[in-house]
Each structure stands twice: as C-alpha cells, then as structure tokens.
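From: lab user (bench 3)
To: helpdesk
Subject: output format question, protein + uracil

Hello, I'm new to running complex predictions and I'm not sure whether the block I got back is the full result or only part of it. Here's what I submitted:
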Amino acid sequence: MDVTPQHIRAYVDYLRDMGIYDLYQRESPGTVLTPELREIFLAAVTPKEPVAQSARAAAQLTAQRTTVPTPSRPPAPASSKPLLDQRSSPAAPPMNYFDIEPQTELPASLASPMPTPVSFDKLAPLPVDIIPPSGRAAALESLRAEIGDCTRCPLAYAGRHTIVFADGDPNAKLMFVGEGPGADEDASGLPFVGKAGQLLNNMIAAMGLQREQVYIANIVKCRPPANRVPEPLEANTCSQFLVRQIDIVRPQVIVALGSTAATYLLGVKQSLSSLRGRWHSTRGAKLVVTYHPAFLLRDPRQKGEAWKDLQMVMAELGLKQVKKQ
Ligand code: URA
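Helpdesk reply: Thanks, we reran it on our side. This is the complete output you should expect:
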C-alpha cells in the first residue's frame, strides 16, 4: 500500500486516541506503544518516493514546500533505533500534510473517528493541592519549561516561530481564553497583541481593569497556518497545558472568547448564541462565553451584546463600570 499524507495523519490521530501524545520527541510515561506498533509507525512515516499519487497532489506539495518551510527530515533511523527515542533532533513529519485533498478513500482501519470535544473538567481531576499565590508565578514558569520547544502536534511544523504561553497576572481573578496566536502573537510571543488584542485591551479597560491584572491564554499555543481554526488533534493535544494553567492561576471567572474557546473549555459543540448570556463552569471557575474580539472587529454591531456578557462578569467580580470622560 502506498502511504499518503492522509494515512499518516489518520495513524497519528489513532495513536493519540490511545494516549500517545508526543510522537516525535519522547514517549509519555505509561505509553502503550509496543515494539510492533513502533514498526508500523516507522513504516508509516517512511514514505516511498514519490509520495503523491497524482500529479495534482504532487503540484500541491511542491507549492506548499515553497511557501511553508518545513524542517528537513533526518535520515531514516538505522534498523532497531526507534524514531520515538530521538530526543535531540525531533523528526519532522515527512511532508506538509495540511490542506491536501484526499487522493484515495482511507481504509476503514486507518480512518480516524470524528473526535467529540471533551470538557476541561473531564480532561483531568481537579487538583487536590492548591498552589499558594506566592508560588503561582514559579509554577507557571516550570510548566512553560516543561512545554519546551514543543513538537507534540503538527502545529510545530506548520510555520510557527514562537510558542505563545500566556500573559498577565499569575494570581488573576479573571482569565480570558482565545483561540490561538495570530501573526503578531507568533512574532512577539504574547497573546492578543494585534488588532484583536487592542480591542480586548479596550474591553478590559472598560471593565475597570488593566491588562496586567488579568490572565490571557489561548486554546492552542502555536499559530495555526493562515490563522485557520485549530484542528481537534491540535486543540486536544495542547489542552493539557491550559488545564494546568487554569489550575495554577485558579481564576474566579473565565471568559471564553469565541466558539473555539467555548467548544473546548466546555466540551460542547453548540452555537455561540446558545452559550452566551448564562453562567457555565469549568475547573472550579465560573465561565461566560462571549464574542471573539476579531469577530467584533468584523461586526462592531455586536459590541453591545459582548458588553452585556462582560457586565455579568463585572457584577460577579464586584467591578464598577468606568465612566467615560
Ligand atoms: N486571536 C486569538 O484567539 N488569540 C490571540 O492571541 C490573538 C488573536
């Protein structure tokens, strides 16, 4: 059987469904990757040339290679050395497998099931030990160090420059969660610093707060190519770290900015309008859903609706509306 990008992708999804999250760098503790599975995986990521089966797909691959540089792949590992143990030089996926139309139907055994979102409450037990406020900055720093130069999901190979961890007060009562970094964030390493970020800053100021008093993070920490919505595989892989950030900061209120944040935090795929205007909860915090600032920039008529959501938050936190001069 010829290996196509879709086969590899389905196989990666399959391994992740089994709890194997870091295919290119290391084995997670308790991994169930048997020697036989390693062999299958190695076979799957070692494509025979040419990979593309049709001239069109080959042209697409060539076009993508010229616009989206991918790290060069190290030579195939010698006989018994498992790919998963190559810590110093993570192997990139053998090709850019985004946005390539399927050339063949996947065999049933390789097809990945449509993942359903899992709420942040179900991803991990609530922490028993609460980190005291004085230790939260250090706990976040050590989590950032644990993430390292992450290669746990395909976004690592999709043109990201910087991992955007978070910004703000490690002891914040209020946390904002967006979707994922854009170009400005990828360049600066900070969330919400572009145009949408300026609007978010204005929203925070209207609530009587400064940006430094809140905590800001995203569902994924690496920029998706062309600012597309993160794929479930990417969001699910990254969520483990946002869960821990929330558990460290322990905000009283979380604002989910837009439907991607709401979907993954709450584990539901529903319209934004059906989720707005009422309280939800996640990881011990109250959660409200509102429009993403980027959406508000496109449709400023909805700013009044977003302000209603923020007023719910202000009432909960005892904040007074800032009077316009
Ligand atoms: N949009 C987001 O969702 N997050 C950012 O950090 C920037 C823009």
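A quick orientation on your result: Residues 5-111 form one domain. Let us know if anything else is unclear.
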